[in-house]
Amino acid sequence: MPSRYLTNQEALTFVTEKLHLRLSNFERPAPSLPLLQKICTAFAAEVPYASIRHLDVPVDRLNRRQLPTLEQVKDTGMNLKGGMCYEMNVFLHWLLAGLDFQVWMRKTKPKRLSANVLTLSFFLDQEKTKKNHNL
User: Fold this and answer.
1) Within 13 A of 16's CA, how many CA atoms are on the CB side?
2) CB 17: neighbour CB atoms within 10 A?
3) Which terminus of the chain is more solvent-facing, meaning fewer CB atoms within 10 Å of its CB: N or C?
């Protein structure tokens, strides 16, 4: 899955027009913890967790629902339709990557849940990033 599925301009437009954030440096905001906090807070407030629309998604013979395509994830994200955790985390990953944050997807399995959970990891410190990922 490409990290740069949203262009910088698409990401900036989404943040300013859909999340209603005012950025002090609209041209090229630098990744920072305050910006990350603003984006995540606005994203949680504006993009709904929506599972009801998945009830009519066809299932295969093993009773599994099809995952949305990358194009569907982008469309639902850009239009604030929300989605399940997979769609929302993938779209947020693309959004942050489009704003030059270093973002990784991680699959985890919490002890008390029977399902896998898709999480995002962020690194704001370049030296820490290089050290943790042997770059």
Assistant:
1) 15
2) 9
3) C
